[in-house]
Amino acid sequence: MTGAPTALAPHIDAAWEERILPTLCEYARIPCLSPAFDPDWEARGALAEAAELLCDWARDQDGALQTEIVQLPGRTPVLLIDNGAGGDPVLIYGHMDKQPPLGEWRAGLGPYEPVREGDLLYGRGTADDGYSMFAAVTGLLAAGGGRGRVLILIEASEESGSPDLSAYVEHLRSRIGTPRLVICLDSGGLSYDRLWLTTSLRGNLVVTVKVDVLTEGIHSGQGGGVVPSSFRILRRILATIEDADTGRILLPDLLGAGIPEAHRANLEALAAEFPGSAAPVVDGLRLLAADPVERLAARTWGAALEITGADGLPTTRDGGNVLRPSTTLKLSLRLPPDVDAQAAGDALLGAITTDEGAHITIDLEPPAQGWIAPPLPDAIAATFARVSTERFGRPPGYVGEGGSIPFLADLQQGFPGTPFVATGVLGPHSNAHGPNESLHIPTGKAVTHAVAALLREG
User: Fold this and answer.
1) Confidence of residue 2 (pLDDT cuts 50, 70, 90)
2) How far is Cα 91 from Cα 418, in angstroms, rounded to an integer?
């Protein structure tokens, strides 16, 4: 069921089909990996190519927009689009950098070859977050340029934890001023039958730990039982961080104070509507939480560990009877929204120790702080709700997201009185960081409609 469309809807829908999707497909073909996944990003030039493509498209839509690529020495570029009005701006945020392909895509799909199937556009970065600049500019133009100043900021290091963003916020501080509203387009929700507002985000710690025990590998018949295994030492370190039986995080500084009552009540209502898990689990897998409420709570307010990469482990085909000299693991720890990420990082570093004399090398990336959305002003909430009803015939959903958007926490700390609308197109099976990433096009159109309505109404 959908509501009666407003005059904005046909204009925005036509723009998507005629102008956005062709260029979004061009963007999907660019392997503009985030710098954490491509140390040679500057020499390779893919991020610069993506920035130029998006910049040229924005200029072509309206030459009156002040559109430029800003790049500080040694940092990834930022695309800045300004409608040129005076006063403090509405600030719209997105990013252009991508995750790596991560595994095999299904037959007929590939990370850098866009494929449309009905309402879905497949390709790496289409949903996370290549669509965001197109939605922001189209929404701005549909709103007649907006009421007052509008600034669109598209960064290129978000998938690496936004290490360059704070430098740009400082560099552009005089242009940013004090935002009167922040719209973030890098989020999503639990379904494609309504718009979704994000109420919280988890923080994130990413650390790479290498354990060296030998200067070179030796026959396991010679060293096994004598030289301690680098893998076993890492297992012991992991056991101090996580309960191997339950997946529960053991370090107190990585655990939050608990879910606020209003958020718990919303989780209970959502669990009644979405009792299942959208994860593509194998048949017969027992989830860590059987209760739907606890599953949603774990996804949005819980701490969790995953091993996201490993070095020093040969393939099973190449693995011989060798005591390996070292093992390296990359750990990703999700943190509850209210946890101090810096203190959590210090506690994590303190847990990575050994008394066996092995050499341990630790690389902790800048911690990503979680975020809890402040209450929205009634007028902004009502505008967003009206667009959701017009597009889908139902009001928006409110849900915490399990991922991190460092920009929101940083900006909220600097501008504590600013309201935030965090929304986006990520939904069931969108696979933002996995294979077969897809953008749900009707949701992209609806998000663009919401941007236009928010800008048109102030």
Assistant:
1) very low
2) 10
Tell me if 277 is assigned to some domain: no
- Within this chain, do residues 213 and 351 fall inside the same structural domain, yes or no? yes
Q: What is the distance of C-alpha 264 from the center of its chain?
A: 23
Distances in Å between the Cα of 97 and the Cα atoms of 46, 47, 50, 81 are 9, 7, 8, 17
Q: How many domains does the chain have?
A: 2
Residue 6: per-residue pLDDT: 63
Quick one: CA torsion of 399, 307, 27, 198, rounded to 10 degrees? 10
- Rounded Cα gap, residues 235 and 321, in angstroms: 20
Q: What is the pTM of this model?
A: 0.90
Cα(170)–Cα(172) distance, integer angstroms: 5
Q: Are 333 and 249 in contact (CB under 8 A)?
A: yes
Task: Write down the pLDDT at residue 4.
Answer: 46
Host domain of residue 441: 8-201+371-456
Task: Return the CATH number at 342.
Answer: 3.30.70.360
β-strand 371-372 against 196-201: which pairing, if any? Answer: antiparallel
Q: What is the pLDDT of residues 264-301, one digit of tens each?
A: 999 999 999 999 887 888 999 999 888 999 999 999 99
Which of 413-440 are b and which e, b meaning 16 or more Cβ less than 10 Å from the residue's Cβ? eebeebbbbbbbbbbeebbbeebbbbbb
Domain boundary among 303, 333, 364: 364
* pLDDT-above-70 percentage for the chain: 99
- Write down the pLDDT at residue 3: 45
What's the CA gap between 241 and 386, in Å, rounded?
45
Classify residue 307: in a domain, yes or no. Answer: yes
Q: At what angle do helices 378-392 and 441-456 cross, to 10 degrees?
A: 140
Give the chain's end-to-end CA distance (angstroms, integer). Answer: 29
Looking at the fold, whether 154 and 177 belong to one and the same domain comes out as: yes
| Residues 121 and 182 grouped into a single domain | yes
- The number of helix segments (H) and strand segments (E) in the chain equals 15, 18
Average pLDDT over residues 42-70: 97
Tens of pLDDT, residue by residue over 392-416, are: 999 999 999 999 988 899 888 888 8
Q: Final residue of a domain: which of 307, 341, 364? A: 364
Q: Are residues 76 and 32 in the same domain?
A: yes
